[in-house]
């Protein structure tokens, strides 16, 4: 048994008048990618300079306006990357790079050296404030921890004055904010605000990180609201989030914290980061998109983002990853497939309003196609099989025909122990139902005179390879031909259902006919026929169905 008794529950906030549960997200936050810093430091093999440049350009392409490019004082690669961006004028005018620095004098000074010549930059200062870190790692009191943050903030201002050509913005993070006493976290943030003295015209960022996720998302939201209401110069402060995913709820924590008043989100593509990772910015952005709001980031070619991530991080995007996974728009379950099929059909009535069961967004909005929405395996049903034939090949089987064919396809999948590709489904359909010529085949037919009215048909058929002429009368050509087969084959059957539609358009359009028959022994069979002549396709369908019983 796991020893659960050595853990203590995380304390909740006593906030009977909390406001955030009644709020909704109404617009996208300010986004800041930390892929090149927080994400990069968590890789087994950190990105090379060339890889970081390529990733930076991709982040710009997606639409990020704030990008944390690294910790310049941490390594030569990090420092060189900052210098390369600046010296080669690779930072667009509407993009602000951000760099991270501990509140230590020599690190702060080297950070500013790395930024010399930049047009704009955010300097992100942090020091650890949590109870555990203060007691175990640093052995500092609250007063000593605050003094460290204040000294760092003062040095930021001093170093910024030495580079007047650069417009600097400042950010402060009480690292492990969620492990810090809330009133003390507010106290240290306000002490830094007092030093920076932001204004509504030039705001500073207070970033409140859930450095290690320790509680349910609602607690993080409480902490953000509590702090946000107590910060000095609130109209001059941008309240920022940086949630980690240790409990698997970083996205939910971020969304609730946005409801609680946060204005900015730091995170990474697909949640890369230390331990279980950071907030997945792509997921949060597309969640916002799914609610009818502009996410301010462009993921209209989601597979490009997947390719960039996998190439740069040497990791894989899980096939069930929200929005981006290879299988997230795919249904295998029969009931799901049927619902999707009906939803897609209903969409023709209101194409401007997406409303399809099991698909929260239109796959085409992220650059996917409808082809893999329904994949057929042994768990699939008639709706899924019908959807594949309709979407890929313009084949619209009647409902009973769908059911019969679905058993054939799922049986094939069960035997092969794999899903069935659309082209294979089509092959199975044609092989089992369409224009069947064994043991009976129709070679030719003609209408002949019928003195008693109605229609009479004379046809040439092969029965087990033997040629014979058959004759029958009926209400129409199909009925007359069916009666002719009954007499010739000494069998009794009834056409229960008949449908047909065009396969193509134009002068050479082919038609397909579907027939369901039932004999006097209670056997039911389905057949289909194709031809550029609708009568021929119908007669071939009857022969195909009869062959299913005559075999």
What are the key terms here?
3-stranded antiparallel beta sheet; 551 residues; 39% helix; alpha/beta; 19% strand
Description:
This protein has about 550 residues and is of the alpha/beta class. The protein has 17 helices and 14 strands. The protein has helices at about 35-40, 50-60, 75-85, 105-115, 130-140, 140-160, 180-195, 215-230, 250-260, 280-290, 300-315, 335-345, 380-395, 400-415, 420-435, 475-490, 535-550; strands spanning about 30-35, 65-70, 95-100, 120-130, 165-175, 205-210, 235-245, 265, 440-450, 455-465, 465-475, 495-500, 510-520, 525-530. Strands 1-2-3-4-5-6-7-8 form an 8-stranded parallel beta barrel, surrounded by 8 helices. Strands 9-10-11 form a 3-stranded antiparallel β-sheet.
Which structural category fits the helices and strands? alpha/beta
Helix content: 25-40%
First-residue to last-residue Cα separation:
62 Å
Q: Report mean pLDDT, rounded to a whole number.
A: 93
Give the percentage of residues in beta strands.
Answer: 15-25%
Contiguous helical run count: 17
Approximate shape: elongated
According to DSSP, the number of beta strands is: 14
Strand order of the largest sheet: 1-2-3-4-5-6-7-8
| Unreliable stretches | none
Query: How would a textbook summarize the main sheet?
Result: 8 strands, parallel, barrel
Radius of gyration: 34 Å
